[in-house]
Design brief:
Blueprint (H helix, E strand, L loop, with lengths): L14 E2 L5 E2 L8 H6 L13 H12 L13 H11 L6 H14 L2 H11 L11 H8 L4 E4 L14 E4 L1 H11 L1
Antiparallel strand pairs: 1-2, 3-4
């Protein structure tokens, strides 16, 4: 006779706990029926509506991240492992939109990405280094540089963008602008 999970999910139970109850998971906390009964304490609260959330946000604003300004914190093996763990992850359109807003607010990555898709050469426009050589040297692809003064990243015109190597040419151009 098959047992049904005692925690409300209706699935077939495969584990009996010391309290005599049967469950579909290794732990009752992993059971979908049990998870459905949990309600997050801060669901729907914001800094504007909750003094507790506002106080926590204020504390977090003053904290400096442990790795700010540090270089070489992670070993190459750990970096590779972190990279592999996020490959293939499915990101919802809502999350993509949120990230795009953050990029607009804090940087110009999205413009560089669009310029890369439109105008990327496999050779640095300044020194002639190939993308393949650049990857061997730095582990990264060649970069895109906005040439207009003042910077107009939104101008998607070939004359406004250059393909440059990261270490030498891009740094020299950024120093000049």
């Amino acid at each position: 006779m098959t047992k049904i999970c005692d925690y409300g999910c209706g699935k077939e139970a495969n584990k009996q706990f010391k309290n005599g109850k049967w469950c579909c998971s290794k732990s009752q906390n992993s059971c979908p029926g049990k998870l459905a009964t949990y309600d997050s304490w801060n669901k729907g609260l914001t800094k504007e509506t909750s003094s507790k959330i506002k106080a926590q946000a204020k504390i977090m604003e003053t904290k400096i991240p442990w790795n700010k300004g540090k270089i070489g914190v992670y070993t190459p093996e750990v970096l590779k492992q972190m990279s592999e763990s996020s490959k293939g992850r499915i990101v919802s359109q809502e999350t993509r939109d949120k990230l795009a807003k953050i990029n607009i607010k804090h940087g110009y990555y999205h413009y560089h990405k669009k310029a890369f898709d439109l105008f990327f050469n496999n050779i640095c426009d300044c020194c002639g280094m190939t993308n393949e050589d650049h990857k061997k040297l730095t582990g990264k692809r060649l970069s895109m540089h906005c040439t207009s003064l003042p910077k107009d990243y939104s101008k998607m015109d070939k004359n406004n963008w250059m393909t440059v190597c990261e270490k030498g040419c891009h740094q020299k151009l950024e120093g000049a602008n």
